[in-house]
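Sanity check

After download, print the first record. It should look like this:
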Amino acid sequence: MTMTALSATAPGKIILFGEHAVVYGQPAIAVPVSIVQARAVISAIPAAPNGQVRLIAPDIHLDSLIDELPDDHPLVLAILLTAGHLGAQRLPAMQVHLSSSIPLAGGFGSSAATAIAIIRAVSAFLGRPLSNDIVSELAYRVERRQHGNPSGIDNTVVAFEQPVYFVRGQPFETLIAARPFTLVIGDSGVQSSTAAVVADVQRLHQADPESIDRAFTAIGDIVRQARGYIQAGMIDNLGELMNHNQRLLKELTISSPELDLLVEAALANGAMGAKLSGGGRGGNMIALVSPQTASRVERALIAAGAVHTWITTVAPILGPTEGLGNANNPSSGFPEIRRFIDYG
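Expected structure tokens:
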């Protein structure tokens, strides 16, 4: 028996500069993490009636017909929103198989990536692939139902697969890196509540707004410099900016002994710069490396206690571009979508 299937993928993401300060009106930069990805594979079920859609996601122990799940289940919602946008009143009988190498709840944008992989696969399976703008918009609607009031950065970075510069309440700007750059990501293994850290920083700000605003302003200046360096290909200059950003985050009590140890290990083994990434007091750190030093830094992080590590490269994606409501916002073009034949 021959069965035609289709797959689509979406990467993870990580914050490069500006976490926490972005809450107070400063800019931040997030970048895609292509070494991890979500993948949706859709195959037709010829013997089943139209409208029967089976959703299989082994990573979360899910195997159900979507009619058996609530409409606001994020994976079901991604399917239904895509069908609704395309005006498909009844979906063909199909199986949606979702897998992901993106860590859950680790600041990698896992929920946005799974939604985007499904949206891309479903729209292409229906013969009407969607633009990155629309994919991002639909994924944001899934994120909003799931998380309440998301910033929109996760769905934007993941959908466009480019670094994104953003200020809360303003249009996002995608950045084309003039030169690729390599990051080593280290997971401290310490779980931390981002909401709790944000609340603690808020209390610090209330107690001493002048000093904390000064730190936030300095972080904003770092982010603006980083944007220029990325666009100009002055990648080596990002290292010292990362180190400066980390020092400010430590002053704001956002780092932790475990993260500090990983940052120090990276710098001692050839990293050009290193800092925590995301909510802080646990979770991940990132190190800027050359291709030649990446493996050495990764080994040093493992020796210093990292429970997981990843090496990823941020590079410009050549091809057609789309905007984000701004003439200076090029996109990656449509990502991987392919048809293949399974023989069984």
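If your output differs, re-run the checksum step. Summary of this record's structure: The longest strand covers residues 28-44.
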